[in-house]
Amino acid sequence: MIQITGGFPVSHASSVPTVTAGQMAEVDRLAVEEFGIDVLQMMEQAGSHLAELVRVELGGDLRRRRIVVAVGPGNNGAGGLAAARHLANHGAAVRVVLARPVNRLTEAGRHQLATLLQMSIDCCVAIYDVTDDELDREFASADAVVDAVLGYHAAGPPHDGVRWLVDRMARATAPVISLDLPSGLDADTGEAPGAAVTATATLTLALPKPGLFRGAGPVRAGRVHLADIGLPSAVFRRLGLDAGAPFAPGRIVRLEGEA
Prior knowledge:
Layout: E1 3-5, E2 8-12, H1 21-33, H2 39-57, E3 66-71, H3 75-89, E4 93-98, H4 107-118, E5 122-125, H5 132-141, E6 144-148, H6 160-170, E7 176-179, E8 201-205, H7 217-221, E9 223-227, H8 233-237, E10 252-256
Parallel strand pairs: 2-10, 3-4, 3-6, 4-5, 6-7, 7-8, 8-9
Antiparallel strand pairs: 1-2, 9-10
Helix pairs in contact: 2-3, 3-4
């Protein structure tokens, strides 16, 4: 029997295989180079699902809710930027804070940001455009913070503008919803070697990362959800992984228990 918790079907974490950072990098490469699924497609789906998780975490109605979206320079940030658009479309008042200047974003990130600017959504760059005190006030007054700063590619402790932004999120009293992993958490070991976010909920993509269930992962990740970004099982079979059909119950699945 499929359970429903918080609006999402529930699966036991042990029923879904985990993928290491190295395996996920190869999955992404195969998806783009051999299956014709580009990063923009994947991050658009990630952002849509992330916005839906935020909506559910905030009780189902985003109208007049204040949400800060913290965005890193990688493709994880592109997913956060896509989520910002969906959140605004749902009626939320959204402010985007970039960890690094626009020219450091990936192509997918720049594409998503261009749309937000046309929508007149407030976007700024950490350190350059906002002071410590201003950003602390933003996080203190937000109804939710979206953490799309660091994904599975991150190695070692955060540094420069990324560390500054992660530090600020770590102090936030509002619920924090992380994309793929809480920023600062190692995807494989679950260790947090430097500044790290403690999320209320995490939306991990395609397949969960082992670090969500190891070390500090269970504490840092909060409620773990798995989101479908449209990758066929054939991609995982190329790596010898039997992914099964984790999204048979729904495109977002809550994972409970130990992996």
